[in-house]
Amino acid sequence: MRAQVLLPKIFNFSFTYYTNKKKLNPGDVVEVPFGKNKEIGVVWPGECSKLEKIKIRNIYKKIEKYSLNKNLIEFIKWFAMYNMTPLGLVLKMVIGSNKNLFTRDDENFNQKIIVGEKYNLNKEQIKALNFLNLKNNKFDVSVLQGTTGSGKTLVYFERIKKIISEKKQALVLLPEIFLTNEFKSRFSNFFGFEPAIWHSKITPKNKRIIWKGIANNKI
């Protein structure tokens, strides 16, 4: 049997490998030969190329406990297309390129539970929230105008709370890293748990934990 394997490199296509009759599913993390080295890749959906007079190498092994679900695979494909970026580089952002990170451990993303505070919105905030809720899943850009301390963040937090209640995820972008601690504190006070934080100072190990949590819908 053959399988397509996407590697976390600059390539915008997957490579064909033999599976040694082992059943592999799209999203499975595997170790494969690439040149003179061993690389970590992901079994990618799609038909295998019909290669002639080309030696096809064998997948070494499947990395147990790790896999990408269908939603994350579709997100990688969309992200690559939307940003005109090779699939392999997007995969590298997701899983990293250090194969030593894929060790047999039982490490999971555990959110620190905090007692969340309760907030009451005023009329203007409720009006803004109702407007945001009307947009539902449609793409739209909305800007809340207000002076510092007027409660714009609380409106967005209420919108995010509704999204989370629907078993969905939300992404919040900040303009500077130094705003992270203040945002995390306000987020924790409101929701009762800490958000997953991602920026250039986050270690590759913690990035892997975050992506694993996203893939398993635990974040």
Textual characterization of the structure:
With 219 residues, the chain is an alpha+beta fold. The protein folds into two domains: 99 residues, 3-Layer(aba) Sandwich (GIY-YIG endonuclease), CATH 3.40.1440; 86 residues, no CATH class. Helix content is 33%, strand content 14%. The protein is built from six helices and five strands. Strands 2-1-4-3-5 form a five-stranded antiparallel beta sheet. Strand 3 and strand 4 form a beta hairpin. The longest helix has 14 residues. The chain starts with a strand and ends with a helix. About 6% of the residues have low confidence.
Structure at a glance:
With 219 residues, the protein is an alpha+beta fold. The protein is built from 6 helices and 5 strands, in the order βββββαααααα. Helix content is 33%, strand content 14%.
Protein traits:
GIY-YIG endonuclease; 33% helix; 6 helices; 219 residues; elongated; five-stranded antiparallel sheet; alpha+beta
How many independent structural domains?
Answer: 2
The appropriate CATH architecture of the largest domain is 3-Layer(aba) Sandwich
Envelope shape = elongated
Tell me, rounded to a whole number, the average pLDDT: 80
Percent range for helical residues?
Answer: 25-40%
Q: What structural category do the secondary elements indicate?
A: alpha+beta
CATH class category name of the largest domain: Alpha Beta
Q: Output the strand order for the largest sheet.
A: 2-1-4-3-5
Which sheet architecture does the biggest sheet show? Answer: 5 strands, antiparallel
Q: Which series of helices and strands comes N to C?
A: EEEEEHHHHHH
State the fourth-level CATH superfamily of the largest domain.
PriA, 3(prime) DNA-binding domain
What is the radius of gyration?
A: 21 Å
